[in-house]
Specification:
heterooctamer; A: mainly alpha; two-stranded antiparallel ribbon; 2 strands; B: mainly alpha; 8 helices; binds manganese (II) ion
Chain lengths: 272, 229, 229, 229, 229, 272, 229, 229
């Protein structure tokens, strides 16, 4: 263009241009950080999901204990990722990057609360979850890399921590109920008739809890209510079936039934 | 009158309207809170252990309805009586919820369908539109449909709790409801959609009754029921 | 009362409601037809030749408003007076259109903003909600915003027709309107959205005035305007 | 090359692509037809009288698989060999269906799970992706899940037909499948959803076995089973 | 702690959160009111007669900013200081508006771009996030973009008012702004969208300058400009 | 559960279980690869976008040449990422992972075609783009890490390549038109009156091309037609304005106008 | 012909079309009403006491079909015969409903599947498209699928009512239907979707039969059935 | 007739239907291809250089319409004449496109609105529904609306190409169209929505005419136009 030179004359060292150069740096830094957090969140999601799959193997594994130990190791790996998140967020307002990390944290809540339920048959509290997300510097190197950047910090500050928000906790727990439903149906299929009743009791408590919260929470929470209700219905129906079919069993056969069942299966195993 | 004077007047009108809405919203929030509390009380009946205390739970729910009446009384004075439908959307949802809860209590107490008039009494509002803050017919019907779905759940949980007679009675009740709704000529709207869900409730309960029948548990139920009721 | 008797009663109520809606829809259709006719009359002002006949066109439009009044009179008896807002959605759109048309006629006649009261007079409805079929304030404002956008178009076409003074007067008028609207605290709804469009009308007219100014045509305009008005 | 030439070229590429898809669709339709015919043959096993002829039915199904092989052979030459996943969606569904049918035949014949390699042999396709038209692992797994659900149905119908041993063997088989599937980490996709259904199949069979157990019919079954197999 | 206790606690947290939001909304409404008032004051500069009183208008706007500071001071204590971004959406829009208004005043006074630090001073908030309630960089930039669009409008109206030098100065200013914005890598968000609008402002002013140039009015302008400033 | 032991007896070394163990490995490997590709795609997207922003700075920079060189360097970085993608896809069916990498590749097409237009005022062809996506092993290390894994491969195979699909190319070009529209408006604002007419000519050709393709392509392509039409309308309107306002200029002033303009701006610069 | 004359003509055509649709809608409403009444009559068969009166209920339903015939006769003259598919959507839904009701009556009477020809006779419409107002094949099939789902419900309720032989007959009937549908090559549309639901009905009935078998109730049924049938 | 025979018959009918649809789809694809080619020819008029060749382009387009006639002739024999509306959706879109193209050619040739009859002649189809494959009125109107929007683009590009008289003629033409459409009472459907877009075309052209007027270019245009036309 023959008039291009006109505007080239704007002084590239003017105050405005200098300011915008600094804005460029600031924005790029922020976006880069956001992007790193999204990637960490994806990693957290995948590993949490795999932990949940692992935990579902408990009913069929020779020993639940082993799987619990393995799941603990997997969750430790996830927590190492969360530690990286916490490090990225050091000195930042976590809410600013919340959208980047929220999906991962919710999935972690789901995984950790599932494991906790299996171990204790109770609901892990938000406080308990957050307690596990306080990280100390693990080795010299970490301490050193940290110190120069902020040498005015006291010894005490050599920890990073991350707080799961109540809403992310609720959303994670809402998803947990889906896993509990799966566990319930699995249990029935495996001839375990106690777990379903325990689960229905527990799920009902969670459902009542969510009903109590109702629409006072954000929309995402209300949105999960329907699925939660479906899961509860599945569990209640499973218990109903157990009860109805149990009504037919002659009392004196009760012991008999199960021993026979075991026999058959052993026999079948021999065949296969 | 200058344009700016005109607009100052108009803003006056808008402000009144916005204030009314704000006031309504606040009362509705308290209503929702009470409704949630009643729900929590009544949900107890699904627990195995909850079947004994039904009267006590109903009693407790009835007390909460006292609060509801006060709150609705406070709601109805927040706006001119002839503008009910102007602000209808604000309380529509919670009113449907309250209808359901009242109908649930009445069902648990007497195993009958609460009439529209009876609901308005429980809620402390008018039965007739002309007389003031009333209950829109579609909101009443919507609440009743929620009851049907709650009862189908109750039928399932009754069996789990070992009560084999209740599902039979629920089945008869829901069949009656279904016949009733078939008399209505509903528009193609949200109520119609919700009504389409009723047939699943009917089917679910029929299957429960079937499960009991085939195992002879329905006889057991009716045998015992005579004494129980 | 049995459940089925209850539902037969309920169906009675529903039928009444459905019939009312059907009746309303029919009258609204005739209103839409008349509104389209008025619009066709007034659209003539945008054409080059149309600038002379403005009074005649307004006259003709005013005649059509007679029909509107009859139709609105027929509409208002289709439903109980205190249920205006129950059926509001049905006539809302056409009423906004009629407000715009009335405001356009009044502007063309006197270059002033029609008041809410004046509109209700033209339409033969009530100025006060308490007195019956009235004009909701948001519908009034919505019609006025349509006027603004029509006037920005008129400014453009005035220049084409060689009338350089009208844009200046329209500019002043729309600026006043804009100031008026800035006094309002609008909710985040459709009215607010439409109001956001006003600034484009303001800008458009300012650009027309600019085009006249830089070519010295505005002086020509005001010079002549003294004589014309 | 001018822009318009470039677009003409691109349009050519797209047309070729569409033609390929059209060709694929046609072959897939014939495959669907054959699959439906195999299904009809095998559905017979659910009928009371069908239990005797299982070998004959399997024989007949195997013949149909000859047709399937021809059709798949024709399918694989419809598109460039290294673009399997480009057109995957077109045959994905029917291939899963065929896997199920092959797995069903094999199960009926030998009461074992067909391996992925064996399925590809029955279908006349490759076991390894590198070697050409192959069977995606997820499609294999999906077909296997359909088998599980068909077997749970078969268990129910076996009881109706008076065969009390088959459900026990199906139970053992499906339990093993379940253990296998639990080893997998599935994404939130359709396979995951279908896998969720497996739990219900396992549950259903458990209930059948239970029903047999409490009636002592399982002993009868295992006593006789030795001879039958 | 029982499950129900846990949920009661959570509900408590949510309620607190909602109350905070309600409080914030109220203060934000007062801020919007003040912003609208400042805008009304400054809009005067577009009117022909408004060009003389610019200093007085700026003075008056500055007084209003005192109110803004009080309101923002009240806003910042409504929520925990370290949760700025948790509630950001609530005040984001009005803050961008205030940035624009502050930038407009500063431009009218000195024809320079207000710095981010200077805006925070005018608004009585912090320049650094670490120190408390601050101004997000994107909100600052968004406000600046509104300024650009306002100035392109001012350029047009300046010509109408006969001030031919101001458009030239605005042109230089906006060109510099444009150069600045080009340095940024924006995401595909609302800021990017608004930045896309800047090109049209630049274009508009270029057209005004061109119009002046071909009429030789720019010389007139620069001749006189020396004296005016 | 008191019956859990029943199912534990399934032989964990049975053929079925062994097969599923291999399936687990296969699926996990596939998902992990997919995930790595998603991350690479995000990187490619971001860097491509930044290249586009850089190229928009040309009209205001002292020298377009510098920016072109800088953009070339940035695109080289992007191509290094694409090389990593190509390496991940070695021996795979690229279509299997297409969804993971498609967004990144489209954005790359947009960036590279924008640069190409600025340099040559013509549309880069798909072939030209793909020619730049053939990568040779760059250093000893890469060669070595590759060799052991597939030592049967010939020397010739020491390259990786990736082919952008025609559809991704089309989608990238469709987005390019948005950038061209921005460039056009920028040009008008900068007093460059030739570029808009060139751009309108070019955009019209692309629009005609897309019209010619019409709905024979996939839905995503048809979907962009509307935006493309909008962009073209903006460019055509800009040209219209240039023409209309140009009609007023007295012929003898033509030379005068621009020199005056330059003066003013220089003067203004002195003030700021 | 001027443009406006052209458009006046066009409006004439549009008006005719709109009037036709209005007329159709009204008749369809009466059809829906009659369909609901027939349904209410037939619903009785699900109730325990309803099993005796099946013939009487069918009789009564047949009478209502007289009304249906009159209404359909009135419908078919509302529009030109060759524009059946132009207005198809208006009556499609109610026609499917009526097919279901006719098929239900026929099944209850003879336990056979009503043919398409027989349905058209019951409804008083044409069997052949060429001859006028006919029954689209997809609407026929859709009605038949509704029958299947109604029968699976009937099987459940038969057991409750102590009739153990009917489920066996229903099972045979639905299996036949299922085989029939497997012969069809359905497009991926709503009919296909509804057909996918058929397998749940099949499964449900198989489970009912299973429940009877395992308790030896099926023998009881067939023993008695010999006499009954 | 057994159930399976019935379904074999039904499948026969379905197959016929599916084959018809397949055939129609193929012809429609060729029509779309031709339509796209005509479009490419006509889009040339927007290029600066294209204004001289308009007659040649129209000529070329007219030749393509020969192909269209052959293709439509082939289309109409693919299905029974009285089932036009059964398959309408298949060709609806391309027919609207062809109407637009025919209307565009006719406009470029004679600057008049093509009548519905004339379009059917160009396309070689019937003008009257009763006589066979015809043009639905809504499809005609839809094509005409597309013309309006194309002409508003043409007005802009005419100016760019230095032709100042064409926009004036386009403006008159579109105003006439707009008046015509205002005579229609459109339903709330897609045509109504598209009609709402017409006002933007009207406005756009008015602004073009304005731009020419204010610069006196309209006079230049009409001065020269005398000679040109
Ligand atoms: Mn989950
Ligand atoms: Mn882009």
């Amino acid at each position: 263009g023959h008039r291009r030179e006109d505007k080239d004359s704007i002084n590239s060292s003017s105050a405005v241009i200098m300011a915008f150069k600094s804005f460029q740096l600031e924005l790029d830094t922020r976006h880069d950080k956001y992007e790193r957090l999204v990637k960490l969140s994806r990693d957290i999601t995948i590993e949490s999901k795999r932990t949940i799959f692992l935990l579902h193997r408990i009913t069929s594994a020779p020993s639940g204990e082993e799987i619990l130990i393995e799941s603990e190791a997997k969750l430790d790996v996830v927590r190492q990722k969360i530690k990286q998140v916490a490090q990225e967020l050091m000195g930042e307002d976590m809410n600013q990057f919340h959208r980047a990390i929220s999906p991962g944290l919710q999935e972690y809540v789901e995984a950790v609360s599932f494991q906790y339920f299996i171990k204790t048959r109770t609901l892990i509290s938000l406080e308990e979850i957050n307690k596990q997300l306080i990280f100390a510097a693990e080795d010299k190197e970490e301490e050193e890399t940290k110190l120069p950047a902020s040498d005015c910090l006291s010894k005490q500050s050599l920890t990073w921590s991350l707080k799961v928000t109540p809403v992310d906790y609720l959303l994670g727990v809402a998803d947990l109920t889906g896993e509990l439903m799966r566990m319930c149906i699995n249990s029935v299929g495996n001839g375990d008739i106690d777990t379903p009743f325990e689960l229905s009791q527990f799920l009902r408590q969670i459902y009542d809890g969510f009903s109590y919260i109702g629409n006072t929470g954000p929309y995402e929470v209300s949105k999960k209510l329907y699925t939660l209700k479906q899961s509860l219905a599945k569990v209640e129906n499973a218990c109903y079936t157990l009860k109805v079919r149990g009504s037919e069993i002659p009392k004196h056969m009760l012991a008999d039934v199960f021993s026979t069942k075991t026999e058959i299966i052993e026999q079948e195993d021999g065949l296969s | 009158m200058s344009v700016s004077e005109m607009f100052i007047n108009l803003q006056g009108v808008l402000t009144v309207d916005q204030d009314i809405r704000e006031d309504i919203r606040k009362v509705v929030q308290t209503l929702e809170q009470t409704a949630r509390e009643i729900l929590t009380v009544l949900q107890g009946v699904h627990q195995g252990s909850g079947f004994q205390d039904i009267p006590k739970k109903c009693q407790k729910a009835r007390e909460h309805f006292g609060t509801v009446r006060t709150q609705l009384a406070s709601l109805k004075i927040k706006f001119p009586a002839d503008q009910y439908y102007r602000f209808h959307e604000h309380w529509r949802f919670v009113l449907q919820r309250l209808v359901f809860l009242a109908a649930f209590v009445v069902y648990l107490e007497t195993e009958t369908l609460v009439t529209r008039e009876a609901v308005t009494e429980i809620l402390g509002i008018e039965a007739e539109r002309e007389r003031g803050f009333h209950l829109d017919i579609e909101d009443y019907l919507s609440g009743v449909l929620t009851l049907a779905s709650e009862l189908s759940r109750l039928a399932v949980n009754s069996v789990t709790a070992g009560d084999y007679s209740r599902p039979l009675r629920i089945s008869a009740f829901i069949n009656e409801l279904d016949s009733g709704f078939r008399l209505l000529n509903l528009k193609n709207d949200s109520l119609r959609k919700r009504y389409d869900g009723l047939k699943y409730d009917v089917k679910k309960i029929e299957e429960v009754v079937y499960d009991l029948s085939i195992r002879g548990l329905n006889k057991e139920a009716t045998d015992g029921a005579g004494g129980e009721k």
